Please model this.
Amino acid sequence: MNDEQQRVVVVTGAGTGIGRATARAFAGADARVLAVGRRAAPLTETAAGHPLITPVTADVTDDDAPARVVGAALDRYGRLDVLVNNAGIAGGGPLAGLDEPAARRQLDTNLLAPVRLAHAAVEPLTASRGVIVNVTTTVGQRAWPGSSVYAAGKAALDSLTRSWAVELAPHGVRVVAVAPGAIDTPIGEHQGLSPDQRAAVRRWQLDHTPLGRIGRPDDVAWAILRLSDPGAAFVTGVVLPVDGGALVA
Model:
């Protein structure tokens, strides 16, 4: 592809896990990728050996983040073809012990940041007839006592995916979501879970995943890449589980 044909992709939460795998998968498909995250060092690791990946340090919850992130794509490449809303944080706790600041942080990151980024990206995505990919979770499609705020925020992002798909279809913009199940990422460490707690969670997840293994970030990146491919031009509004069969078990 020449420079004009190469797609330009923004991936948030690209410093580790699913975001890192997705940024590298797009780069491997000859797309120019802006890898967005809060910390510079992990983004540098994501980009190492991948000259098509450009790190962009930004906290997606900052007021100026949407304009800075979308502006970085337009300033550097003059276009935007795919926005992957992957950045997310998890947290738990029963309703009786609600930590309101923590709940706000989850909703700001997992729900409001994708809304604001999508809003900032609508115009360039319309120009390119591009794609928004929201990374949600199968947790959002079932009861999840103890992590109800996390599940609710992700369920809302599923709903936004369907609504935006209909709203933006006349503008040529597709909107899809990928809903991972149990994936081998550092999210448990980021939650502050101890090694024993993480091991217990993994045992439970394995017991409830029919395919009998924990997913890999590359499994989710594959789905994101396929759904955003021009070959999927007639697919919009879908929320695709990537969970080893956990949702239907």
